[in-house]
Amino acid sequence: MNKCISSSNNFTISNAKCDISNAKFTISNAKFTISNAKCDVSNAKYDVSNAKCDVSNAKCTISNAKYDVSNAKCDVSNAKFDASYSIIYKTNQPKPKPILELSFIQRIIKKIIQKNIKLNKFLCYRAATLLILTIILSSFCKCYDVLIYASFGTFISAMFLGSRGLLGKFKVIASREHNEKFNHTMCYYWKKYVQLPESFLFTFMAVFNILWHMFYGFLALYYVKTFIKNSITTKYSYIIGYLLILLFFVINYNSDFKLYNNSLKCSASEYNNAVFLTLLFAVGLIYYFKTIKVSI
What we know:
Blueprint: E1 3-7, E2 10-14, E3 24-26, E4 31-33, E5 38-40, E6 45-47, E7 52-54, E8 59-61, E9 66-68, E10 73-75, E11 80-81, H1 104-119, H2 123-140, H3 145-168, H4 170-173, H5 176-182, H6 184-193, H7 198-229, H8 237-251, H9 253-263, H10 268-294
Parallel strand pairs: 3-7, 4-8, 5-9, 6-10, 7-11
Antiparallel strand pairs: 1-2
């Protein structure tokens, strides 16, 4: 026999059996507030087969509730639930973030920026970036001669420093270890498509690296005349230009030594001698720039 006891808004329903087969419940615009509730439905059996529940637009607030449904058996076979327009989030998991797919042009620009950042670890590429910015600026307006001396002097000095350093470390840059580390993509495609020994590729890449440093150095040396002739003359430009070149090498000294010590196995004495000879070369370079300016 069912027993219902109610006192002070506390309800106890024990040993109850509910048969709601083929029942239909419509609870629209309802609001339930069940706070500090405790429900004990152990060993309960619910048979709601073929039931249809419509609780659209319902709002339920159940705070601080405790449910004990151990040993409960629920049979909801053939039941139909309509939960359209509902959003379900798993507990303790962040809400899904929208996926923004980059366009083809954006991906290309991103790769170019990443590649440029990676290459600017090397001294010659930093000098090239400085030179390119100077050339772009000079296309819009006349530049001061001190900027031309500093940018072209730094680039040409770095190129000849690089070619000299690579030539002295030819065995290192022609080794398998160096090429697999710094020319990984080239080695991959060579193995895949070229039926020649890898030693040929390593030698070719070493010679190519030396030659392109020399080529771009001479190319800048040839075109610097035009930029010097079109520059604005300033006082003490030769001294200031050389000091800027010196400052460039001083600022990058520690980072460059670590890089070339790692990539070319360059010792401290070898690197110091190379930098000293480069700065001597820059003195002669600045003097050459001065002769061009005087001859105008």
